[in-house]
Structure formats: structure tokens, C-alpha cells
Amino acid sequence: MSATVNVSVVYYSATGTVAEIAREVAEAAEKTGAEVRLRKVSELAQPSAIASNPAWSAHASATADVHCATVEDLLWADAVIMGSPTRFGNVSAQLKSFLDSLGDAWREGLLADKVYSAFTATSSLHGGQESTLLALTTSFHHFGGIVVAPGYTRPEKFADGNPYGTAHHTRGGTQPVDDTTRNAARVQAERVVRFARAIKAG
Ligand SMILES: Cc1cc2nc3c(=O)[nH]c(=O)nc-3n(C[C@H](O)[C@H](O)[C@H](O)COP(=O)(O)O)c2cc1C
């Protein structure tokens, strides 16, 4: 019998794109039989900044009941899939702040030997997608994680074209998450669970 795999999907999203990908990743992982926790990270922005952007404000209200990630969500997981919108080609401060809270767990070696993978979204075409994914991956290497990238391992990956992870181009906020991105998210989740299951089974 194959081992049950615990997957934590941890993300930050201001206007909902990355959250939508996170839900797709979580659903796809669940369909493979994994136990899944879907977690946002804590907001750092001032309420006035959120209120100044209707999409940000609406998303914050709509996801108020999503649990915030804790270190325990990572300790519990065999696989961690993290997502952040790009910020000048880099990880958002909110997700970075969560990463920065993991020092004690890292020091004790508790983040090692898990499978990690990353996803992102950008406003413009390319827009820093790969640099954001690689920046997240940098932390995973420091954890002693086993980074599982989707590569071009399935035909769907030639449609979205990003071997580093799922990445959605919002066209300035006008293009919601579409089938191409959903397929990429599903491929990534299935691949992560497959490797996590094999590693857990020894
Ligand atoms: C401070 C800041 C910097 C950003 N930098 C970039 C960028 O370098 N390239 C880009 O395409 N989009 C950039 N964006 C747009 C966001 O990445 C985009 O709104 C996000 O991917 C949407 O995801 P979300 O709906 O989950 O928040 C930036 C947004 C902000 C607020």
C-alpha cells in the first residue's frame, strides 16, 4: 500500500491569482490521495494600502477564513508547495517574512529531506516569473529540501512553457487563471506527490 503523503500548500496573494493557483494545486494533490493543508501567510501591508486597491480588499475579505501558515504546517508536511506573486522579480515580502520565521526549524534540521516546489504569477509577460521561482528555490536548497520542478515532463508543460514551476501571466490583472495554468498546476502537484510518496516509502 502506498504511504499517505502530507502536502502543505503555502502562499501569499494580494489580488487572488496566486490563491487561485494554490487552490488548484491543493485540489490536484488531494485527488492523488494526499492529505492537504492550504495555508495563506500573514499580511504585512497597512490596512490603508489594502483598502486603496478594490481587488486586494475584496480578496482579503474573501479569504479571511483561510488559516495562516505556521511552522508546524511545514513540520507536518512531506511536501511543501509555495506560491508568491512576483515583486520586482522576487518573492513577496509577506511570503519572505514567513520564510524568515523558519530559522529555528532550519537550525534543528527539521525542514530537510522534504520535497519542495514553487509557483508564481506576474502582471506582465515573463515579468520575473523564473527569477521569482528560483528565489523561492534558493531557500529550499538551504533547508536541505529536495526540489521537484515540473520541467517539460508532460505535454501540458509545453503549453505553459515554464519548467521551474507553474506561473500565470495576468496581463495587467485582466487574464484570470485559465486552463493552461490549471493544467500546469495539476502536473506540478501530481509530480510533487509522486516523488514525496516514493521518498516516504523509502
Ligand atoms: C510592488 C510590486 C511589484 C511588482 N513587480 C512585478 C514585476 O516585477 N513583474 C510583473 O510582471 N508584475 C509585478 N507586479 C504585479 C504582481 O506580480 C501581480 O499583480 C501579481 O502576480 C498578481 O498576483 P495576486 O493576484 O496573487 O496578488 C508587482 C506588483 C507589486 C505590488
Automatic annotation (TrEMBL):
<dbReference type="InterPro" id="IPR029039">
    <property type="entry name" value="Flavoprotein-like_sf"/>
</dbReference>
<protein>
    <submittedName>
        <fullName>NAD(P)H:quinone oxidoreductase type IV</fullName>
    </submittedName>
</protein>
<feature type="domain" description="Flavodoxin-like">
    <location>
        <begin position="7"/>
        <end position="192"/>
    </location>
</feature>
<comment type="similarity">
    <text>Belongs to the WrbA family.</text>
</comment>
<dbReference type="InterPro" id="IPR010089">
    <property type="entry name" value="Flavoprotein_WrbA-like"/>
</dbReference>
<dbReference type="InterPro" id="IPR005025">
    <property type="entry name" value="FMN_Rdtase-like_dom"/>
</dbReference>
<dbReference type="Pfam" id="PF03358">
    <property type="entry name" value="FMN_red"/>
</dbReference>
<dbReference type="GO" id="GO:0010181">
    <property type="term" value="F:FMN binding"/>
</dbReference>
<dbReference type="GO" id="GO:0003955">
    <property type="term" value="F:NAD(P)H dehydrogenase (quinone) activity"/>
</dbReference>
<dbReference type="InterPro" id="IPR008254">
    <property type="entry name" value="Flavodoxin/NO_synth"/>
</dbReference>
<dbReference type="GO" id="GO:0016020">
    <property type="term" value="C:membrane"/>
</dbReference>
